[in-house]
Structure formats: structure tokens, C-alpha cells
Design a protein that fits this description.
The complex is a heterodimer of chains A (341) and B (280). Chain A is an alpha+beta fold and 341 residues long. Chain A contains nine helices and 18 strands. Classes of the chains: A alpha+beta (341), B mainly alpha (280). The complex binds adenosine-5'-diphosphate and magnesium ion (MG).
């Protein structure tokens, strides 16, 4: 039995079905990242788990307890919103204390817990500030602290970083990972950023039009996308349909398309003998363009009429290819993800 | 702040000129004229108009009644207008628009038409009065009295309050309310600790506007109760237009005191908000 269990959950608004009979499991102490295009139902699912919207059917269990009909504030669920949703009339401390006060905890205990979380989140210098005086990153840290101080069974985060600029976003993402390691909370984290998803998630669930198209560990999602949409989301795959596979690599009778990462392709000068690696497939290409991407050097190559992206690690002694140069690429069989949709 | 060049600043002043001119001609100048007249009598300059008012039970009483009606109807306006606006915020956009249009009309539905409607509905033999009497909810009620004025004023004050409060509710987003709910706040706890404190400055401002609105109401009161209502505006009207009591200089002094009683609270409010801003 998983810590969080979502079973056959269905939610409709009037005539539109947001999701139907979906299932999701999250283990205790893990972060499950929900990703998918805008409008696919991520927020609605999160709100259903929080108790802010009521599913039409299905069951939500949290730590062995059926919470489907439990009021939001009694579920032991904390939530962090994209736009912080801090209480603007209260200082940082007061924002954190508010929930504890509602629980009627004794003053000294509230003080202790608030101070502990302020310390944990490095909010000490801003403890007496009001939200209006905080930067975006600080606001989101307060929002996170406000949820954590109540020690929720489950933390829900709805695109918490997407209103922040790139640098703060990265910092907060790393901080969140560290925090999760230290505190050990269980979370469902919504994002539409693939890097965030792969970096933060112990488990990544890819959602599309109200369905999960793939749920798995980040490495699995990254290396073995289940379909074209997942491949497009994790980005930058070379996609070969069955006909192309046959034409370029001479592998016939394929029913599924291949997805191959640019960095999984070996490229060598055309005159070099084919690699001894028996399982690999090969083809001749012409280098059309070379682009430095930082750690990687991207080669845009052409095989017959097909563009193939090939990445090489940007090491000092790396031999880079020239534009117009003929080359040979080879793809190991275990670098090929076969996709059925 | 971005530095605005001198040229832009001059342009801004020029653009504002027509407006400033209107303010000068139709607000400042008349006010100065009233102020000047208020320290005159038929024969000489003196403060005797003011001393007459401030020692007259009758005129002081008119201020008292005006204050009471204005405070009462401003509170009634907010007391009903605020919850109404909160409920309205939850309605679909089209319903909101419709109510805003109605309130706009209602807030300006004053003077003779309003008084006439009230007489028809709530007068001695008004349809509503008779209905209430028939079902025994009402023994005797007199619309031509101070409490009648309170009811009539409340009609436009409530709708004015809705219009004033509605925009400020944007500060209370659904997310803030949900965040409070998720950390365990009841509806009451949310409004007491978060909702009302957020709204406090704008509620105070709205109260003052409603207060001023009621203080300045003349036609509705006059149409409903004529000279028998002892409110400041009717006293002023009587002294300017009346043939028996005419004393325009005394009227001007009353008007000046009315202006002061409207401006003073607003000045105090502004100072209060400024110190509050500094605390942040
Ligand atoms: N309160 C609502 N009423 C009607 N439709 C809604 C409501 N909330 C969300 N939807 C619809 O449900 C779908 C999923 O929305 P949402 O869960 O917000 O997606 P995401 O968070 O993945 O962008 C969208 O088509 C949206 O229009
Ligand atoms: Mg969303």
C-alpha cells in the first residue's frame, strides 16, 4: 500500500471531463513531479488532493486514510501556490504562526516551531517584514515555510517556481531538494519545466489531456520515453519513423518509431572503419552546421533527406567536425527507445 | 522613480491645465466666495454668523441630526454593501456586471424620484406599509421622520457602498482564501484576521465617502420631509431660497462648517494612512 494513493479519480466541470479514472501512487518521503502541457489537468488534480475541489468519483487515500470526503483543512495537506498567496497584512512570522494559532497550540510551542522553520529556511533577517517588502524568491520561501511549519503529511506545490526568474528558480530548486533530503517530506510537485521535473522528482508522472502517459523514475523517462509526446517533452530526441529506420539503417519490419538522444549517437570520420559493436546501426551523414551549446557541441547532420542531431562533449581534445564534412554515425541498440504511439 | 525631464513635466502641467481650470472656477472660486461671504453680515464683516450657529441649539441640532443620519447610513451601507459585494464577487462575471450597472443607477437614484418611490411604497398609505401592517409586522411607521430619512438614504448608500467596496475586494484573491483554509482557518477566522485587515484602509475611505455623500444630500430629504427635517442641507437651502428666513450670509457660514466637517475626517484619514505606510 502506497503512502498516497489516487484511485480511479474522475473530475468533470459541467460538460468537460478534466480527467477520468486516473491512478497515481506516491511513496512516503518521495517527491512525485507532475508534468504536462498547460490545461491538461495538473492543477485540478492537485486541488482535488488538497480538498479544494471535489472529484466526481474515485478515492484519495493518504497514509492509509480515505480522505476523499474529508474537509481540506483536516487532511494534513499543505499547499504552495504559484503566486505565493501570502497573507499581506501579516509579517513573515505572523504568516507562519497563523496556522499554528488556528490549531490552538500553546504560545511557546508556536514560537519554537516558527523560529525553527525560519532558521531552516534562512528567513531570519526578514522575519518582521511584510510580504510586500519581500522579493519573489523570499515570498516563495515564506510560502513553503508556512506549509512546512504545520508538518503536513503531504506537500502540494503548484508550479511554485515558474513566477521566478531563472537564477532564483535554480537556487530555490536546489534548496528544495536539500530540504526534502533533510526534512524528508512527501510532495507532489507540478511543473511544466522538464529540467525541474527530472532534477526534483524521485518519480515523474507525465500527464496529457487528463491521462498519465508515463510514470517512472527520471532516468527511465529520460531514456525511454513511452511515446512521441513524452519524447517531445523531455526534449531534443531524434525521432525516426519505421519507414525512415528501414531507409537509413536497413532495419526492416519495424512497427514502432525510434527515439534516440543526440548525445547517444557516435559520430566518426567517414573513412574510419565501422565500429565492431555488433548491435549498432550505422549510416553515412554530411555535417550541415555546428553549434556550441556550452558543455555540448551540437552537430546538425543530414542522412539522405533526414536531419539528425548529434551532440559531442565539449572537451579540449574533442575532434569537432567541419561543415560539409562527410561522417559516419552509429547508434548502439540500447540507446534506441522504441515508441508505440 | 524614473527621472522625468523638465520638458515632460511642463507638458504634463499643460495637459492638466483645462482640468485645473475647471477645479479653480467651479470648486475653489465658489468656495472662496462662500468663505468670504460667511464672515459678512448685512452691514459689516464679523464672525457673528459663526457665533450665531455655534450658540444656536437649532443649528447645532441640525448638525447633530445630519451627523447621526450620515454615520448611521454609512454604517448600514457598509454593513450590507460589504457582504453583498463579497457574495457578488463569487458570481459569474455577467451577473457582476449587471448588478454593478443596477447599483450605479441606484446610487444615483436620489432626490424627488427616490422620495416619490418611498412615499408610494412606505408612505402612510404606501403599499409596503399596508402590507406590513396587514401581516402584523408593523404597528405604525412614519416615513416622514428621521428614521424615514435613514431608510431612504440607505437605499442609495448601500448601492454606493457596493460600488466603492467591489474594486478593493480584488486584493482578496481566491488563493489567499484557500491558503488560509488549508492552514486551518475557519471562514470567520479568515475574515477577522486576514480579510477585514486587508480591506480596512479602503473600508475607512469608503465610510468617509458615504458619510460625505449623506451629509451633502439635500433633494431627497427635502422632497420627503420638506423643511421639517432638521438636517444641515435643508437649513442651508431654507436660508438661501426661503422667503421667510432668508439670510445668505448665515447660509454660507453653515456651508463652510459643513465643508470643514467633511474635509477634517479625510485629512485625519490621510495622516493615519501615511503613518501606517511608514510602519511597513
Ligand atoms: N473551475 C473550473 N471550471 C471549469 N473548467 C475548469 C475549471 N478549472 C479548470 N478547468 C478546466 O480544466 C482543465 C484543466 O485545467 P487545469 O487543471 O488548471 O490545468 P493545468 O494546471 O494542467 O494547466 C482546463 O481545460 C480548464 O479549462
Ligand atoms: Mg495549472
Amino acid at each position: 500500500m502506497s503512502y498516497v494513493e489516487i484511485r480511479e479519480l474522475t473530475k468533470k466541470f459541467d460538460t468537460t471531463t478534466v480527467f477520468e479514472n486516473i491512478n497515481l501512487d506516491v511513496d512516503e518521503g518521495k517527491i512525485c513531479v507532475l508534468v504536462g502541457p498547460s490545461g491538461c489537468g495538473k492543477t485540478t488534480l492537485l486541488r482535488a488532493v488538497a480538498g479544494l475541489t471535489h472529484p466526481d468519483s474515485g478515492v484519495i487515500r493518504l497514509d492509509q486514510r480515505d480522505v476523499t470526503k474529508v474537509e481540506a483543512k483536516n487532511r494534513g495537506v499543505g499547499m504552495v501556490f504559484q503566486h505565493y498567496a501570502l497573507f499581506p497584512n501579516m509579517t513573515v512570522e505572523q504568516n507562519l504562526a497563523f496556522g499554528l494559532e488556528q490549531k490552538k497550540l500553546p504560545r511557546p510551542e508556536i514560537r519554537k516551531k516558527v523560529d525553527g522553520v525560519i532558521e531552516l529556511m534562512g528567513l531570519g533577517p526578514r522575519a518582521k517584514a511584510r510580504p510586500a517588502a519581500l522579493s519573489g524568491g523570499q515570498k516563495q520561501r515564506v510560502a513553503l515555510a508556512r506549509a512546512l511549519v504545520l508538518e503536513p503529511k503531504l506537500l502540494l506545490l503548484d508550479e511554485p517556481l515558474s513566477a521566478l526568474d531563472a537564477q532564483i528558480r535554480k537556487r530555490l530548486r536546489d534548496e528544495l531538494k536539500r530540504l526534502q533530503h533533510d526534512v524528508g517530506f512527501t510532495a507532489i510537485f507540478v511543473t511544466h519545466d522538464q529540467e525541474e521535473a527530472l532534477m526534483l522528482g524521485d518519480q515523474v508522472a507525465i500527464m496529457q489531456a487528463g491521462r498519465f502517459v508515463q510514470i517512472g523514475a527520471p532516468a527511465e523517462i529520460y531514456n525511454r520515453p513511452a511515446n512521441l509526446a513524452v519524447a517531445n517533452f523531455v526534449g531534443d530526441f531524434n525521432i525516426f519513423d519505421p519507414a525512415t529506420v528501414e531507409r537509413l539503417f536497413g532495419v526492416a519490419a519495424q512497427t514502432s518509431s525510434w527515439a534516440v538522444r543526440p548525445e547517444a549517437i557516435d559520430i566518426s570520420p567517414a573513412d574510419r572503419k565501422a565500429s565492431a559493436n555488433g548491435g549498432a546501426v550505422e549510416t553515412e551523414v554530411t555535417v550541415m552546421a555546428v553549434q556550441i551549446l556550452g558543455a555540448m557541441v551540437r552537430h546538425y547532420t543530414r542522412a539522405q533527406d533526414v536531419m539528425i542531431k548529434v551532440d559531442l562533449l565539449n572537451k579540449p581534445d574533442q575532434r569537432l567536425f567541419q561543415i560539409g564534412e562527410k561522417a559516419r554515425i552509429s547508434i548502439a541498440r540500447n540507446a534506441i527507445a522504441e515508441m508505440n504511439e | 522613480m524614473i527621472d522625468i525631464s523638465a520638458k515632460t513635466r511642463i507638458l504634463a502641467w499643460l495637459a492638466a491645465m483645462p482640468f485645473l481650470l475647471v477645479v479653480l472656477m467651479f470648486e475653489i472660486a465658489p468656495l472662496l466666495a462662500v468663505a468670504a461671504n460667511s464672515i459678512q453680515t448685512e452691514t459689516s464683516f464679523s464672525l457673528s454668523n459663526y457665533s450665531e450657529i455655534l450658540t444656536s441649539k437649532f443649528y447645532l441640532g441640525s448638525f447633530k441630526v445630519s451627523f447621526l443620519i450620515s454615520i448611521a447610513t454609512a454604517l448600514i451601507g457598509l454593513g450590507i454593501g460589504l457582504p453583498a459585494a463579497v457574495l457578488l464577487k463569487r458570481m459569474p462575471g455577467r451577473v457582476q456586471q449587471f448588478v454593478v450597472i443596477c447599483s450605479n443607477i441606484g446610487a444615483n437614484f436620489t432626490g424627488f424620484p427616490l422620495a416619490f418611490s418611498f412615499v408610494i411604497m412606505l408612505g402612510v398609505s404606501g403599499s409596503f406599509t399596508l402590507l406590513l401592517q396587514r401581516i402584523g409586522l408593523l404597528e405604525d411607521f412614519n416615513i416622514y421622520s428621521t428614521s424615514g430619512l435613514v431608510i431612504a438614504y440607505s437605499y442609495f448608500q448601500i448601492q454606493f457602498a457596493i460600488l466603492l467596496v467591489l474594486p478593493s475586494l480584488a486584493a482578496i484573491t481566491a488563493e489567499i482564501e484557500e491558503a488560509a483554509h488549508l492552514v486551518g482557518a475557519s471562514r470567520f477566522a479568515f475574515w477577522w484576521r486576514i480579510g477585514l485587515p486587508i480591506l480596512a484602509p479602503s473600508l475607512l475611505g469608503s465610510f468617509l465617502l458615504l458619510f460625505a455623500n449623506a451629509m451633502g444630500t439635500y433633494a431627497t430629504a427635502w422632497a420627503l420631509v420638506g423643511g421639517s427635517a432638521n438636517v444641515v442641507t435643508i437649513r442651508i437651502g431654507e436660508l438661501t431660497a426661503g422667503d421667510v428666513f432668508s439670510d445668505p450670509y448665515l447660509a454660507d457660514a453653515l456651508a463652510m462648517l459643513l465643508v470643514v466637517s467633511l474635509i477634517l475626517p479625510i485629512v485625519v484619514e490621510q495622516m493615519f494612512l501615511r503613518t501606517k505606510d511608514r510602519d511597513r
